[in-house]
Amino acid sequence: MVREQVAEFSVEYVQALDEEGNADEAELPDVSDDELLELYRLMRLSRRTDERAVALQRRGESGTYAPGTGQEAAQVGSAIALEPDEWMVPSFRESAAFLTRGAPVHRLLWYAMGMEEGAEVADANFPPAIPVGTQPLHAAGIGWGHEISGERKAALTYFGDGATSEGDVYEAMNVAGALDAHAVFFCQNNQWAISTPRETQTRTETLAQKAVAAGIEGVQVDGNDVLGVLSVARDALETAREGDPVFVEALTFRRSMHTTSDDPSVYRTEEQESEWEARDPIVRFEAYLRDEGLLDDDRVERITDEIEELLADEIDRAKEGRDRVVPAEMFDHVFAETPPELQRQRETFRREEGDGEVATAEEGMSGEERAAGGEVTGRGDVREDRETAEDSETSEDEEVSDRGE
Amino acid sequence: MANEIRLVEAVRQALREEMARDESVVVYGEDVGVSGGVFRATQELQDEFPEQVYDTPLAEAAILGMGVGLGATGFTPVPEIQFASFAYQGFHQLVQHASRMRSRTRGTLGVPMTVRTPYGGGIRALELHSESFEAGFAHVPGLKTVVPSNPADAKGLLTSAIRDPDPVIFLEPTSRYRASRESVPEGDHAVPLGEAEVVREGADVTVVAWGAMLHEAMDAVEDAEADAEVIDLRTVSPMDSATILESVRKTGRCVVVHEAPRTGGLAAEIIARINDDALYHLEAPVERVTGYDVPFPMFAREEAYRPDAERIRRGIERALSA
Ligand SMILES: Cc1ncc(C[n+]2csc(CCOP(=O)(O)OP(=O)(O)O)c2C)c(N)n1
């Protein structure tokens, strides 16, 4: 009989800045002073964007929003490690990653305002992915493409601890390993999937070890330590660019509600929440920067003012765009070329609902035209003043869970 | 005895009463336990039935696939899929296993699972939280597809679904969850599956709708000139053709309403059945008032997408004027 150990594994945990902001020199990534300040500004901008977006939702000016409060270090530290032409493949809580990649705030707000305009792609950022755990496969595909074409590039995808329970996520890691896809799987373990705590998702001790079964490298990092995250993300991307995918588990905490429709007090205590308040990623990093002499009160105030000014402009711009939504555009991008039946539907819509344009006569009469005696009747009223922000449904009792999550 | 409750509470009442009646009934899914579900449909049920209500990991294929195993071996699984669009993540389990188990084992194994899931638009939700895929579910042989439009039916149909020996997908219109309080019978209340209801009698035109659209249809006929008969389909599959045909033979005109996209929608199936068995009673082509063949838009454009009373009224006018 043979009985011997044939495999063993371990998972490393990385931290560069401890909770008080003391640095471990050996783990510090190579970052210039300007870059350090930019990391700080981005984290502050993200935090404030969340606050403003939630407030807009509360006033009925916008829709469901998923704040990333508490996860700024995890997102900013990793997104900044990507090259501009490398793809970022987000889930739905990645405002901070988008901002780091240069996406304008108004586009994030448009998405929250229920506008496809907010999902338009300008740079190498995939649009938000609402179905949990589906997008890591896209990163595997992008990264496989880099392998096929021999490019020294990698894609980085974000997902949560809950997502690691979805079959697609296992498939993504496995297929990436099998096909040498240039992909980094960046899991933000924020401890909660709506009301479901991390322990309910899986029995494993770490999420990082899920990489082991796929034969790829898995590493854990303090996700509230922006410099630790940056260091790990850089290494992971370098490895992935060579065709070896990496799984990163960033340990962090969802400090706020799941989305604006959620009420965390139903399923977790204030003690649990305050435990993580002490580990705030921005407070910690600010302490470090002050120690290093890179920040003082004046500088912090200047950054604060700049952020307020930027957000005021961006929110105005978002509202202007929202007030100009043209409903008929829902027909415009279903296919590259609109098929005849869909054209017919669009023209019927324009005739009946109007959108500023009067429908033109077409071949073949629809039922509507039959009814109208073959005449094309154009109402053509302009819908520009539509009040899209009206939020009458929420005024009912039980505000929370009106939209489910 | 009857109480005035909302649709979401009627769902909860049915779950509570069925779990109390039959301990093989197991309610499970994402966030259904501790928090009571994202719409609070299962609120407090875990406290009352700790052995029958479970939170699961975030995995729809697991939720539906385990339902096959549970259901085939003596349990009565009543899983929740958090939103209907995420049933796709486990759709293969419904199509390849749950719906076929009875036929492929020549009746020796069945899957008495009821999959509850919120569906449809009108609540300004996120992307992929508003779709109406009932035609897709109805296209799966061996799977029953049920859509309640009001609190009493929600309770009565869900009760029947749970007691049904075959798999049922139970689509709960999100915009109706808290829309109104209505009278719901207390205690045992089962509304049979597969039976439509004539909710308003009329002589001039038949309007067929279900779920949230039933209410738009009722609003539309309120101010229509004609005397409309309105049918709430309730079970979209297997469909109660007899009630529709009987009505159409009487009125000679028909309008079918659904929120789902037009092409391949259930209106097409209903029209085909009318053609098969009541064509010569028709005095006008059957009208369809439906969503458009576009992905359900994000909420800034959802009002424009969804059929409303005005659009239905125009459909009725066309059916009457032809
Ligand atoms: C396939 C799928 N199932 C369910 C949902 C509903 N839902 C949205 S977010 C969420 C929890 C996600 O948790 P996690 O992956 O940990 O990410 P986090 O929200 O914490 O960022 C759930 C269940 C969904 N969007 N997609």
Short recap of the structure:
Chain A: Residues 387-405 have a biased composition (Acidic residues). Chain A: It comes from Halorussus limi. The complex is a heterodimer of chains A (405) and B (322). By secondary structure, chain A is of the alpha/beta class.
General description of the model:
The complex is a heterodimer of chains A (405) and B (322). In chain A, helix 1 (33-58) packs antiparallel against helix 11 (281-291) and helix 4 packs across helix 12. In chain A, helix 9 links the parallel strand 7 and strand 8 (246-251). Helix content of chain A is 40%, strand content 8%. Residues 356-400 of chain A have low confidence and may be disordered. By secondary structure, chain A is an alpha/beta fold. In chain A, the strands form two sheets. Chain A has a six-stranded parallel sheet with strand order 1-7-8-4-3-2. Chain A has a two-stranded antiparallel ribbon with strand order 5-6. Chain A has helices spanning 33-58, 72-79, 95-100, 105-112, 136-149, 167-179, 198-201, 210-214, 226-241, 270-277, 281-291, 297-322, 340-353, 367-371, and strands at 12-14, 88-89, 155-160, 183-189, 192-193, 196-197, 217-222, 246-251. In chain B, helix 1 (7-21) runs parallel beside helix 7 (151-163), helix 8 crosses helix 12 (309-321) and helix 9 packs across helix 10. The model of chain B has no long low-confidence stretch (mean pLDDT 97). Chain B contains twelve helices and 14 strands. A five-stranded mixed sheet of chain B has the order 9-11-10-13-14, with helices on both faces. In chain B, strand 10, helix 8 and strand 11 (228-232) form a beta-alpha-beta unit. Chain B is globular, with a radius of gyration of 19 Å. By secondary structure, chain B is an alpha/beta fold. Thiamine diphosphate sits between chains A (93, 130-132, 159-163, 190, 192-194, 254, 258, 405) and B (30, 58, 60, 82, 86, 89).
